[in-house]
Amino acid sequence: MAPIKVMTIFGTRPEAIKMAPVVLELAKYPTLVTPVVAVTAQHREMLDQVLQLFRVVPDHDLDIMSRGQTLFDITCRSLQGLNDVLAGERPDIVLVHGDTTTTFAGALAAFYHQIAVGHVEAGLRTRNKFSPFPEEMNRKLAGSLTDLHFAPTATARGNLLAEAVAPADVFVTGNTVIDALLATVDEKYRFTAPPLADIDYLSRRVILVTTHRRENLGEPLRHVYQALRDIVSEFADVEVVFPVHKNPRVREIVQAELGGLARVHLVDPLDYQPFANLIARSHLVLTDSGGIQEEAPSLGKPVLVLRDTTERPEALDAGTVKLVGTDREKVYAETRRLLVDRDEYRRMANACNPYGDGQAARRIVSFILWKHGLAERPEPYSAR
């Protein structure tokens, strides 16, 4: 029997982080699997950083990123490029990840070629098509085209079953981001350049901040930054590290509200390795990112989510994250609470992370092999 050809398609840094463990796992079965990696490079520089870290070399690189690109540009260029790649490779199954525009385009291109689709990190839902935008609909549309749904949690599986997906086509794996994180964080890691190298992480309480969501642009972000300014003014031992997104609309407001402020370090977006190790050394995290809601709790870091909705309710139920939105007074109050209330901090820091055990990629690959009669059926992930 010829090896099954498995093509992974991704295009952004978050996808690359979460798909790298799957790519590396596929490579462990050279007699059973022919792995093919295709990237759209919806992100370019940030994608390349992750590829280099995990030593993943794409077989096909569409290099679609352009200055000022729109969702229309990304979708059309991805579809056109993937048409040629799929026509040439004819894989047995295509794996896409999560909720990016590359994800939707990859699933749609595979469907047009009548190739099976596996969706890694399937089943997350807010049930608000504009929050997060466009991710919620990218994920749902890709799910409608999917044959094998790799749900990270039992809640995600339940969402899929509620949408009439056949139970036999859904498999709970845990989240591959935990695989990547555990392989990257190292207590011996040292930052090499200021300001990160100059911070005393033992005596200072570092608040890590990330913001980038389209729905928060403008006044919502301004309110968050004003709350941070209040916190830094009140607590002399707090240092804020803020890798600032390259979106000019984000940067303009950040500079206006936080630029030049003592103990607020505005830095360029970090490569994944220093970023993962910065999470590990932080006291708490303020973010509107989805992935960090999974990563930080794995390292015992409370997360305040700067959004009104989340497609990751398991973290809310477990108590590892809290939704605080973007109201200045609420962001300030909840951040202050974690700085002064040691019991509340310990409660969030010690809550059980529901997102994985570092074995998600193994489960995904084993399930694909089982579906093709090449392995025993693996046991699904269960949060303890």
From TrEMBL:
Documented EC number(s): 5.1.3.14
Keywords recorded for this protein, A-Z: Isomerase
Enzyme class name: isomerase
GO molecular-function term, one example from the UniProt record: UDP-N-acetylglucosamine 2-epimerase activity
SUPFAM superfamilies: UDP-Glycosyltransferase/glycogen phosphorylase (SSF53756)
Gene3D superfamilies xrefs: Glycogen Phosphorylase B
Regions that span the bilayer: none
Domain spans labelled UDP-N-acetylglucosamine 2-epimerase: 34-368
Organism domain of life: Bacteria
UniProt family annotation: Belongs to the UDP-N-acetylglucosamine 2-epimerase family.
Descriptive protein name: UDP-N-acetylglucosamine 2-epimerase (non-hydrolyzing)
Organism: Anaeroselena agilis
Encoding gene (name): wecB
